[in-house]
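Backbone-to-sequence.
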């Protein structure tokens, strides 16, 4: 894993799809003094999985919103190039209560013009990849939290997302299932998506290719407690 300071010059082959954050900072303080984070500059690229870590209250969800374009940063600029489809998988995802799991994943294929039979077949392939085959006919409201989140990850893959933002994808999962999810996120990135994962889970953090630790971008007057096993304790560079 590399810290964002080690990212180096973006090669010309990667100059297509990307998200560029330049000197980004944000605060909800009307006075503008209590910054969540500041001076964050990074280029997010396909074929990378970025672990977004930091102390509680450091602004991980806020930064995901900024990357998605839902929130305008207080300082700096964000440019999304070639990212027409943005998908955000929430820690507590929402679906259609009475809709079957397979239909949630088939819908993006149908929206792109596939016949229902073909869309269902493709959806079943994705459910299998996320270990959800046995739950294909189960209604969303009957899924556990971890099952629902994996379902929304599968739906995100089905949507052909250019930019996939994921909030705590393994928080509710056992070791084996978490490993499967981490593998699928890596496969998604290798397929051409930009993947950013907000996580407290050291296993997920270590499975990512790059690290953005918001603890390294705190204001001088903000010193939230660091979490155990923080990346700075492992010699990572922010």
């Amino acid at each position: 894993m590399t810290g964002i300071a080690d990212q180096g010059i973006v090669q010309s082959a990667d100059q297509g799809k990307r998200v560029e954050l330049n000197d980004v900072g944000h605060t909800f303080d009307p006075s503008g003094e209590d910054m969540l984070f500041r001076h964050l500059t990074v280029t997010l690229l396909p074929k990378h999985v970025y672990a977004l870590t930091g102390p509680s209250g450091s602004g991980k969800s806020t930064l995901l919103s900024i990357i998605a374009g839902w929130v305008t940063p207080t300082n700096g600029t964000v440019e999304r190039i070639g990212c027409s489809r943005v998908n955000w998988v929430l820690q507590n995802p929402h679906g259609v209560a009475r809709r079957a799991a397979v239909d949630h994943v088939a819908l993006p294929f149908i929206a792109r013009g596939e016949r229902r039979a073909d869309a269902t077949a493709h959806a079943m392939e994705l459910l299998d990849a996320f270990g959800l085959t046995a739950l294909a006919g189960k209604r969303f409201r009957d899924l556990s939290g971890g099952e629902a989140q994996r379902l929304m990850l599968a739906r995100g893959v089905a949507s052909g997302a250019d930019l996939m933002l994921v909030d705590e994808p393994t928080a509710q999962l056992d070791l084996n299932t978490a490993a499967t999810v981490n593998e699928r996120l890596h496969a998604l990135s290798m397929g051409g998506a930009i993947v950013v994962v907000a996580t407290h889970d050291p296993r997920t953090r270590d499975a990512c290719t790059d690290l953005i630790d918001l603890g390294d971008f705190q204001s001088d007057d903000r010193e939230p407690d660091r979490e155990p096993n923080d990346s700075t304790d492992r010699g990572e560079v922010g």
